[in-house]
Amino acid sequence: MQITRSIGGFYIKEGLRYQLPLIKSPTITDILNTLDIMKDKTGILGIKNNMTESDELEIYIENDNYMATLMSFDEKDDNYYVRTLHNSKPIDDPNAPAGFSYMLGETYGSSTIVQDYELIKEIVLEFYETGDVSRDILD
Known about the structure:
The chain is built from two helices and eight strands, in the order ββαββββββα. The chain is α+β, with helices and mostly antiparallel strands. The chain has one domain. Helix 1 runs antiparallel to helix 2. The two termini are about 25 Å apart.
């Protein structure tokens, strides 16, 4: 069975919010082009696995900082789970409380934020190809 997905999101420029067009059944080229467009912006890119209606990869982007979250529903125990990155060298945000960083105006654990764009591309490619991301990357 082929995985179907959709991609969308938004970015903020000069205080205004711009909605990305929803692309249903995007190609990998569509997804990578959209990710490249978002690379130097502030916003969120979401890629949804339409086969499950619950699995969604979100990429938060701000000031060359990236945070990836994968939400999934486990039918065995009827719960939603959110998996995130774990950065062994956390980003130091002097404006945030110790151990935290600001991303899109909210505080998140610094260890969930990376500055590695190639890692984010790897996560997006794996989710596109498999509908999941290795627990070695997102846990």
